[in-house]
Amino acid sequence: MNTQTAEETNGLTCTIQYRTLYAVLRTNREMDATAKKLVEKMAEIQTQMAKLQRQSNSLTAALEAIGLRLEDDDPFSQPTDATYAETLPFTRTSLVAACKRILMDHRTKFLTKSQVEYLAAIGGYPFATDDAKNSVDVTLRRLAEQGLCQVERARGPAGNQYCWKGPKDDEE
Hints:
By secondary structure, the protein is mainly alpha-helical. The chain has 2 domains: 6-65; 81-164, Orthogonal Bundle (Arc Repressor Mutant, subunit A), CATH 1.10.10. The protein is built from 7 helices and 3 strands; from the N terminus they run αααααβααββ. Strand 2 and strand 3 form a beta hairpin. Helix 6 crosses helix 7.
């Protein structure tokens, strides 16, 4: 005898307690063909999303480990790389403008040239050179010479780190 309520087995509205869509699909023989297709498609999409989220988590950890991606200390205080990837704010800007915006957006952190290069690239900046890191480095050094950012000099693979100290908003 089936004692489940309609609310527990309603696969179309996903108001199932303690079950996945896949389990509902297998056990609910009374679902009409349209609802069954919708549930199958939803289960397929959720599986793909879970797989992509695992891949994203792995890539995020790898990028953080090699020092390219910033750790999300407080994702609400400044744009994250995901925000840059969604909005592509640097597709039609100069490298100078992109570097200034990145430093302003992350004004509380010191960034390496690799991190700035990564954020510019993920934000859609169309690098037209074989050595993008050098272009970013030259741009950051010029911004420092102009007094727009502070430099913490360092040797080693990471090199110098830069932090915005110019005006609060870009006035140029």
